[in-house]
Write the structure tokens for this entry.
Amino acid sequence: MAQETRRVPAFLSGPTTATAVLLPMRLYVGYWWLQLGLGKLADGWLSTDQQLLPDLLKQQNPPDWFAVTFIEAANENVYLFQWLIVIGELLFGAMMLTGAATRVAGVAIAVMSIIAFIASGHEFASWTIPMMLMSVTLAVAAAGRYLGLDAILRARMVKVPLF
């Protein structure tokens, strides 16, 4: 009688099981950024009759070089920046939550966290530094390889760059 072996899907076994530890962190980071984007969407950031970004930037205390470069550009193109912020938060949050291209999403979230950290005037008591460290960790470890879209595509031998 032939010995039966139990088959485990490729995306749940093998060298990717070490990334299982990063699953809660990946889900938290994805949920956080998705909620930020949904909150801005609910506040009306994508409507053309409201300019909410300048009011938000006035509350911040950025360094002079950042105010001259980034905030001047944001004030000249308010709607473009509002769209980029909301779409970026929604897109990269959903990518991290689903485990799709987590390297790209992690780097993008780290960049957005650094921008928020600088815009807040280097406030160390905020959420930006831990979020940046978590997203860089997720990007380096390719955390989507466990229970994510990256794992499913890898198991099907789909060649996607940056996995």
Remarks:
- The radius of gyration is 19 Å.
- The chain is about 60% helix and 0% strand.
